[in-house]
Write a structure and sequence with these properties.
disordered C terminus, alpha+beta, 258 residues, 8 helices
Length: 258
């Protein structure tokens, strides 16, 4: 009777000469159905699509968020100058100090443009330049403001320049600040003082380059400043030499005459 019970307790697969299925062994597990594999492939594609669209949304919203954040911070910063005055007067209106600051800056511009304002400004600038440490900060800040000034005075950057620096085959962006004549035994040489920023815009090197070796691109001063401040991210895809355009026009005129 014991032998009969043991024979009945053995699995049917072992009695038929087959090995029992092991659920922990993937090689011995039964093959997955076509529906499950299709479901897995669809899940992978859907997950990849969601990740891609999410990253696209982050890339689009990141500059917008930074722009609004900086704008909001600037409005709050400027509004804080005159807002305490209005709070004491009983006018707690957000943005009123910002509008007052804009009017104040405009009034300063009108006042400095007059003869009396220019005299007061010159006297204040004279006092600042006599201070030991502050005069260096003021000079660097004035250089930046003079570069983007709409008056185009003598201290502003003249042109955007591209020079061969530091090795042959490499170029650097700079700004032409002035020109001079170098007297030599074999003849005079016209040189241009090119300011090449090395740390954003307020720190850089000055190079004296022959005027004929300077490449003058079709970029304005503002575009050149944006390229340097942004680290080259606003670089246009195509830059042409200003001296190349008239040469091409002369060649086309000669071809038409022939």
């Amino acid at each position: 009777m014991a032998e009969e019970k043991e024979s009945t307790s053995t699995p049917l697969a072992s009695r038929l000469g087959q090995q029992p299925e092991d659920p922990e062994d993937p090689d011995k597990s039964p093959p997955s159905s076509p529906n499950s594999s299709t479901r897995k492939a669809f899940f992978v594609v859907f997950q990849s699509w969601i990740s891609k669209k999410f990253m696209t949304g982050c890339v689009v919203l990141f500059p917008v968020a930074i722009t609004f954040y900086i704008t909001w911070w600037f409005i709050q910063f400027v509004d804080g100058f005159f807002r305490p005055i209005y709070v004491r007067l009983g006018f707690n209106i957000f943005g009123l100090g910002f509008v007052t600051s804009l009017i104040f800056v405009f009034s300063i511009g009108v006042f400095v443009s007059s003869w009396m304002g220019a005299t007061v400004f010159w006297f204040g600038e004279y006092l600042i330049k006599k201070m030991p440490f502050i005069r260096h900060i003021y000079s660097a800040s004035k250089q930046i403001s003079a570069a983007i000034s709409p008056d185009h005075n003598s201290m502003a950057f003249k042109e955007v320049a591209i020079i061969r620096h530091p090795r042959i085959g490499e170029y650097a962006f700079g700004f032409i600040t002035s020109s001079l004549v170098l007297q030599r035994d074999n003849g005079d040489e016209e040189l241009c003082s090119v300011y090449v920023p090395t740390n954003h815009l307020y720190i850089g090197d000055i190079f004296l380059v022959n005027s004929e070796e300077i490449i003058r691109p079709n970029l304005s001063i503002r575009e050149g400043i944006e390229i340097i401040v942004s680290g080259g991210m606003t670089m246009p895809q195509l830059i042409s030499d200003l001296e190349r355009t008239p040469r091409q026009g002369e060649r086309s005129l000669r071809m038409n005459r022939m």
